[in-house]
Amino acid sequence: MDIAVFWYENEYDLDMQLRYNYRLYPNMGQRAALAQAFGCARVVFNDGPRARQEAFAAGRPFLTDKELSARLTAAKATPERAWLGEVSAVVLQQALADLNAAYRIFFASAAGQRKGPKAGPPRFRSRKDRRQAIRFTANARFKVLPGGKLRLPKIGDVSVRWSRELPSAPSSVTVVKDAAGRYVASFVVETHPAADEERFPVPDHEVGIDLGLTSFAVLSDGTVIRSPKFLRRAERKLRRLHKALSRKAPRGRNREKARARVARAHAQVADSRRDFHHKVSTHVIRDNQAVYIEDLCVAGLGRTRLAKSVHDAGWATFANMLEYKSRRYGRAFGKVGRFEPTSQVCSTCGATDGPKPLHVRQWTCASCGTVHDRDLNAARNVLALGRRERINACGDSIRPLPAVAAVSEPGTHRSAALAAQEESSRRRGRGGRQTGYPRLRRRRPSSVLEWHSRYVKLAVTMHCGRRGGGRATGFCRVWGMFAATAVRIDADDPLSGLELGERPEPTVPDGWTTVTVKAAALNHHDVWTLRGVGISEDRLPIVLGCDAAGLDEDGNEVVVHAVIADPDAGGGDETLDPRRSLLSERHDGAFAERVCVPRRNLVPKPAALSFEEAACLPTAYLTAYKMLFEKSGVQPGATLLVQGAGGGVATALIVLGRAAGYRIWATSRSETKREQALKLGADQVFPSGTRLPERVDVVLETVGQATWAHSVRSLKPGGRIVISGATSGDAPPAELTRVFFTQLSVTGSTMGSRDQLGRLTSFLEQTGARPVIDRVLPLAQARDGFQAMIAGDLFGKIVFTL
After folding, report:
1. pLDDT given at position 25
2. How many other C-beta atoms can be found within 10 angstroms of the C-beta atom of residue 156?
3. Axis-axis angle for helices 754-767, 648-660 (nearest 10)
4. Which residues pair with 207 in a beta bridge?
5. Confidence at residue 195, expressed as pLDDT on a 0 to 100 scale
6. What's the distance, CA 388 to chain centroid?
7. If you ran DSSP here, which 8-state letter would residue 256 be given?
8. What is the C-alpha to C-alpha distance for residues 628 and 645, in angstroms, rounded to an integer?
9. SS3 of residue 74 by DSSP
């Protein structure tokens, strides 16, 4: 059965009107005048429904708009309502106009002449309404002054923050005071089609869009636009502010202040979401001549268990922006029927695979064997359906190679194609000769990740601004930067929470700077983040990665120190700051094209080190440096045991310890890793848990529960364990009897300071020691690196490049 596709073909609208909003900053006197105007407009508005209700109750005829206007004029001449003359007459007449418009909508809805939900009669306005508004038309003779101020009748010259120029002379301005106490001037202007056409030249590209929750939108060309989840990210702050509001006494000034703080927080979320929608919709309309989306039932989805996420995404607002911008810039815009099974149909051969639960993000077509990403496949189906309605009534293919007759031949519908395909399969099952059209296949990318990895080199140079001015072809990112992000927590399947795709550009606070990442190193910390260790769900989504090396804003080669802290709070050592954090804990991390960090966290990169080598230093090698030269408390020549050779910190301990003249022993379960440790410079290696030939001075522990008992038994009396990690578990038997009887000490070590990172880079430069790198992967293949770390299939560091 064919399902209807709703279609809108848009041309330039010569009379299109838009609203341009700007912040107002009235002084105290102007605020009082605006409050008076709001009150007068509210009184005039409320007089109308009251008079009409009284006339209806008395059996008199319905009061017309003209009669209400005459009553207003007469009321201003009475002593009781003389104060209405202290505000602009246009403001009062526009209040009546709003009332009359509300009545017309009510009557049209009651008569069944208006689409949508039933509209009720106008309600009375209250002085307690959090939103107050008045409107000035051209008759009021408001004026934008040369100095940039807005002159409003009987209000004064109000300061305006002009964030952009008005495209034409405004026909009216509405002054709004919102719940957050902000004043906004909303101008109504008409756009010029010639200027719009010059701004956005006609492209030759079409796109289908699949809207979602995990990813806000997936485009048919493979672009993934991450969902910022503004409300989810602000929930902690909102919860705290709402609790503070609930504790305030009713009708008190403190309660009003707390209410204003809550309103400002909600307004910030709404403004951020609106700004995101505008940016994404503008990029989509600019780069595509035709845009197709699904006609989603947002109101219905808003009544499900996903309601908060649905409303946080704001699909309806985004769709409305796409529609009006397509009208403005002469683009074609279409909506696919909401019952079209875009997630069930294979975009390659047209076969229907049936419904799938939401957790199924990839599936394999049983007919042609193509592996589909769920959202990307849906976006391609949306594009195909939109093209079918726009180009011809029968459908056309968007595939580079023919598949089955249904999709590629005009005049044949998908249902007929499936019948032919089933008949062909049936005949092959009887042993007969193969009939029907042959399946011409070529290997297609198995996921969005593979699409991105094919075109990642091209994507890096194709920013949204298109500095060259010409249109690029192939894969093009629409918005943001490519990043590896933790979107959910799963202790059993951590990779299910890893997402590769678009991420908003970092916001740079005062005292911070942006680093263009050239290389970033993977740590166990990133795997623990995906498992939910040290991070809560409300901080997601967050970009992963602690270690990075790249270029600062001036083009200098730098290494990024990963500890975000105040050195003064830690007595000169930022690692002792109780409020310290690492990148990817509270702030977005380094697995992205750009990372934002405090300026003091940048350390010059020696020219002798490559970006890949320098990226290994901020966590693993800095931790090893601090363990060896500060926490161990022994001199060169002492015997040190490194538990678990093969990990990033363990290999760093072997490399640095050998360069410094220590006697290094190492353990590992893997014979291959023991051999590699010997090649790195370890003096002796042993299987994990093996009795040592003699006791050692210091044990350098990063494994935890699996090796703790062996570490305690391997120490000389008075020896020391320096521990900086517990990858196998953090709750082993403590062996307290042995600890106090042999007077052992246990010392914890975490990361290192910025100064120690600088000394580490100098140490490597002087000694010639270099970090051990297991493999280098493009960031688009980060999932392979995570899998190797989870499986323990590595020796040294895994580095991602951009």
Report:
1. 95
2. 15
3. 60
4. 291
5. 76
6. 32
7. H
8. 16
9. helix
For the stretch 559-599, pLDDT in tens is 999 888 887 776 778 888 888 888 888 889 999 999 999 99
pLDDT at 543: 93
Of 399 and 657, the structure prediction assigns the larger pLDDT to 657
Give the position of tokens 């492209």: 203
Phi, psi (rounded to 5 degrees) for 216: -60, -40
Q: For helices 65-76 and 89-110, give the axis angle rounded to 10 degrees.
A: 150
Residue whose C-alpha is closest to residue 353's, from 361, 339, 362, 363:
363
Nearest 5°: the CA angle 543, 544, 546 is: 120
Q: Whole-angstrom Cα distance, residue 160 to residue 581?
A: 40
SS3 321: helix
Catalytic annotation, residues: 210, 294, 375
Closest of 450, 472, 469 to residue 459, by C-alpha: 472
Nearest CA-CA partner of 21 in 183, 171, 157, 147: 183
State which H helix or E strand residue 622 sits in. Answer: helix 622-626
Contact 378, 224 (CB under 8 A): no
CA dihedral sign of residues 678, 683, 689, 693:
positive
Q: What is the pLDDT of residues 203-234, one digit of tens each?
A: 888 999 999 988 899 999 888 998 899 999 99
Rounded to whole angstroms, the Cα distance separating 130 from 173 reads: 20
**CA 179 from centroid of its chain's CA atoms:** 27
Find where tokens 């947002």 sit.
Answer: 298
Residue 761 near residue 606, CB atoms below 8 Å:
yes
50, 125 Cβ separation under 8 angstroms: no
CA distances to 52, 54, 96, 476 from 61, rounded to whole Å, are 9, 10, 19, 64
- For the record, the structure tokens of 338 come out as 């909401």
* Half-sphere CA count of 563, side-chain side, radius 13 A: 27
DSSP 625-661: HHIIIIIS---TT-EEEESSBTBHHHHHHHHHHHHHT
The partner residues of 365 in beta bridges, in order of sequence, read none
Cis check for the bond before 733: say yes or no (omega within 30 of 0): no
Judge contact between 483 and 503, C-beta under 8 A.
yes
Residue 131 burial class via C-beta count within 10 angstroms: exposed 0-12, middle 13-18, buried 19 and up: exposed
Q: Is 677 exposed, middle or buried (0-12, 13-18, 19+ CB in 10 A)?
A: buried
